[in-house]
């Protein structure tokens, strides 16, 4: 779901800390607390140290933040600045090198506080590479454009009919493509009263169903305050759009909102709660989705994907990266093993394709689409390939669907262009392109060892 968690900066730390704090005498040691509390604590410490110009303490607090959220690009940038202020040049360049190897873009000439680094040749080399990382790469063709669909959020494909389905947040409508590109209304709150803001769609062609993750949010035009926290799954007839069954989350006093969904071969639906990070499971024949798996360190669950053999459920956490759970044992989850050169931050959409995960990242710079090749056991990444990034059409790309060897995905989002009620902040909302990329085409990315050797040679020759 695209309720964006904007990058955290030290200026917001104090507010977050107050929200997370408990009486010091009553809490266990900090490193035993949930990671969310630890992040809030160290954000507060970083803010206090920075404001008092205690840069050693600022660096220490930011190191803690980086350890807790290793993919957060802002924390990495702050560390470079802190090390530069302290004269710790090697540490600053090591962090810059890590960011460069992860394909992150930054124009350090525009960053205050790194003046002391600019006298070194390594700085110029790294800066040129990181500026270049922000230039367009790869290819994504415009398949079609959504002109009258405010806040599109979900995309699905029916292999039997060849239709694409689009779900919208503001109107709660579901559209489908007919006659080679024309969009028609498939379902709406007028025809399907239980339909609210649409956050994901999944086609079950085998059983003739379209599954919908829907919920009440203020950006939905039919939102009522008494509906806050109302969310669930709808099963629609794939041909007629008629509502076949409604499966709401049983209210438990927590704010709930189902986002990404994925369907197993037996018809079981798995759904991610984006408000209180948790996986819900709806088995065939059941009325209510049941809590299936959660962890106190989850940050914000986004995309879900099932392995081709149906053994493993992959879960994208916007801050922590990709986690894995075996569906035969829902008691444990593992972190996907990845190389240091892969930054997993800011993943929204995630899809399975021939023993690969295809991910859409909008929480880092550049925004990009990657293909991650998995090892035989599915527990680690053995190769990374860039499909597309920093394209002109990209304006917070979000979710999509795999069709054969192609990824169809929403190239832009309206979340940052509307107010709390879903109304445009200024003018009309721009059209949203549906882009298409061949996921089989890109080659693997260079891991960066050649660059590391070159930088070492330059330092030795100084």
Write a structural description.
- The protein has 462 residues and is of the alpha+beta class.
- The chain is 20% helix and 31% strand.
- The protein is built from 7 helices and 25 strands.
- The protein has helices at residues 13-20, 35-51, 55-68, 73-86, 89-101, 121-132, 449-461; strands at residues 137-138, 141-146, 152-157, 164-168, 174-178, 182-187, 197-204, 209-215, 231-237, 243-248, 258-263, 269-273, 278-282, 290-294, 301-306, 312-317, 321-326, 334-335, 347-353, 356-361, 368-374, 381-389, 400-403, 406-410, 432-438.
- The protein has a 5-stranded antiparallel beta sheet, with no helix packed on it. Strands 2-25-24-23 form a 4-stranded antiparallel beta sheet, with no helix packed on it. Strands 3-4-5-6 form a 4-stranded antiparallel beta sheet, with no helix packed on it.
- Helix 1 runs antiparallel to helix 2 (35-51), helix 2 runs antiparallel to helix 3 (55-68) and helix 3 (55-68) runs antiparallel to helix 4 (73-86).
- It is globular and about 65 Å long.
- Residues 1-23 and 446-452 have low confidence and may be disordered.
């Amino acid at each position: 779901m695209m309720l964006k968690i904007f990058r955290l900066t030290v200026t917001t730390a104090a507010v977050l800390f107050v929200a997370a704090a408990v009486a010091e005498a009553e809490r266990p040691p900090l490193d035993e607390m949930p990671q969310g509390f630890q992040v809030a604590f160290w954000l507060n410490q970083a803010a206090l140290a920075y404001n008092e110009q205690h840069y050693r303490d600022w660096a220490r607090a930011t190191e803690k933040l980086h350890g807790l959220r290793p993919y957060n690009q802002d924390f990495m940038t702050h560390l470079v600045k802190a090390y530069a202020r302290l004269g710790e040049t090697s540490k600053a360049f090591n962090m810059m090198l890590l960011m460069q190897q992860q394909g992150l873009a930054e124009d350090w000439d525009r960053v205050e506080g790194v003046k002391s680094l600019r006298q070194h040749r390594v700085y110029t080399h790294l800066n040129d590479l990181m500026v270049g990382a922000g230039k367009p790469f790869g290819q994504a063709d415009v398949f079609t454009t959504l002109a009258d669909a405010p806040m599109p959020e979900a995309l699905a494909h029916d292999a039997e009919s060849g239709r694409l389905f689009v779900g919208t947040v503001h109107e709660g409508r579901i559209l489908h493509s007919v006659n080679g590109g024309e969009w028609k209304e498939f379902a709406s709150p007028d025809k399907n009263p239980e339909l609210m803001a649409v956050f994901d769609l999944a086609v079950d062609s085998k059983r003739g169903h379209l599954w919908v993750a829907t919920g009440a949010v203020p950006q939905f035009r039919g939102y009522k305050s008494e509906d806050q926290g109302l969310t669930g799954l709808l099963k629609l007839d794939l041909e007629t759009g008629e509502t076949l069954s409604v499966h709401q989350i049983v209210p438990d006093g927590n704010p709930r909102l189902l986002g990404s969904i994925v369907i197993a071969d037996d018809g079981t639906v798995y759904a991610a709660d984006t408000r209180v990070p948790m996986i819900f499971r709806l088995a065939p024949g059941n009325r209510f989705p049941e809590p299936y798996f959660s962890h106190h360190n989850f940050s914000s669950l986004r995309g879900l994907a099932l392995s081709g053999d149906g053994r493993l459920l992959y879960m994208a956490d916007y801050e922590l990266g990709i986690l894995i759970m075996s569906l035969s044992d829902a008691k444990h989850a593992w972190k996907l093993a990845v190389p240091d050169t892969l930054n997993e931050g800011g993943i929204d959409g995630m899809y399975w394709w021939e023993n690969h995960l295809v991910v859409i990242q909008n929480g880092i710079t550049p925004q990009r689409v990657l293909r991650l090749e998995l090892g035989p056991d599915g527990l680690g990444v053995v190769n990374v390939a860039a499909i597309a990034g920093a394209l002109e059409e990209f304006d917070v790309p979000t979710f999509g669907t795999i069709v054969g060897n192609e990824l169809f995905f929403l190239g832009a989002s309206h979340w940052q262009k509307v107010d709390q009620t879903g109304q445009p902040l200024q003018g009309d909302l721009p059209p949203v392109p549906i882009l298409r990329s061949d996921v089989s085409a890109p080659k693997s990315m260079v891991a960066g060892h050649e660059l590391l050797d070159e930088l070492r040679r330059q330092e030795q020759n100084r």
